[in-house]
Design a protein that fits this description.
The chain is α+β, with helices and mostly antiparallel strands. The chain is built from 4 helices and 5 strands, in the order ααβββαββα. A 5-stranded mixed beta sheet has the order 1-2-3-4-5, with helices on both faces. α3 links the parallel β3 and β4. The longest helix has 17 residues.
């Protein structure tokens, strides 16, 4: 997913950038989540904060749920926030697993912990299947 080609993802990132430009880095993740929630409200972006989404296993919905930092646009976008020194493959893998398990089509991984905002976008339809990865 390219932000410029996806108006919803672009709007979400615009809110995140305003939060980062205002607060800078150095706060806990919860402060960024509070500020991002205000930006979503101001920009009429439909969201659910700490959304409990179901996890699926081989087509069956499990009782266990994952709590997403945010979902936006009727659970079309999963938003995972971080306030760490740098994103790594660990955080990317976390989001990829969340996408596969919840079947949410898109995700944004946003890190407020640097002088410049860091982010990654994910598209479930473009991720390699788990069977391909194990070969």
């Amino acid at each position: 997913m390219k932000l410029k080609d996806d108006p919803k993802a672009y709007a979400i990132m615009g809110c995140a950038m305003r939060v980062h430009n205002t607060l800078g880095n150095g706060f806990l993740e919860s402060a960024y989540a509070d500020a991002l929630e205000l930006e979503f409200k101001r920009n009429s972006i439909p969201y659910i904060r700490e959304d409990e989404v179901y996890i699926y296993y081989e087509g069956t919905r499990l009782q266990t749920r994952y709590r997403a930092d945010f979902t936006c646009f009727d659970r079309g976008y999963l938003i995972e926030l971080k306030a760490i020194r740098a994103l790594s493959k660990i955080e990317w893998a976390q989001v990829i697993h969340y996408l596969r398990a919840t079947r949410i089509p898109y995700a944004l991984l946003i890190n407020f912990g640097r002088a410049e905002i860091q982010y990654e976008t994910f598209d479930l339809s473009k991720l390699p299947s788990i069977a391909q990865k194990s070969n």
